[in-house]
Design brief:
The protein is mainly alpha-helical. The protein has two helices and no strands.
């Protein structure tokens, strides 16, 4: 990019302004960090009773629920796996050629 005519800012002025901006940013971050830590501590303390109540409810529902019966269970096996299983069971049930009775060679 070409410099427009007129006086350009000295490089030392730009470097000093950037350094001052970095120092101000670090100072603001350092001053906000304790406030953020205190806020997170208060939030954690406020969540303790909520977590106790949630734990009680989970334990209560887990105690009342039993494992579902076979009638209520739903098969969620993907279709391609079910088809493969059915095909393999069909192949295993089908009599093999060596298991079939052999007809006498003499004819009728």
């Amino acid at each position: 990019m070409k410099q427009l005519p007129g006086k350009a800012r000295p490089k030392w002025l730009l470097a000093n302004s950037q350094a001052i901006a970095v120092v101000v940013f670090i100072a603001m971050t350092a001053s906000l960090l304790p406030l953020l830590l205190i806020a997170s501590l208060l939030a954690a303390l406020l969540l303790i009773p909520v977590m106790h109540q949630l734990r009680k409810e989970v334990e209560r529902t887990a105690a009342t629920l039993n494992s579902p019966s076979r009638d209520e269970m739903v098969d969620i096996t993907p279709l391609h796996q079910r088809l493969r299983q059915e095909f393999l069971m069909f192949i295993r049930r089908r009599p093999q050629a060596q298991d079939l009775p052999v007809a006498p060679a003499g004819g009728c």
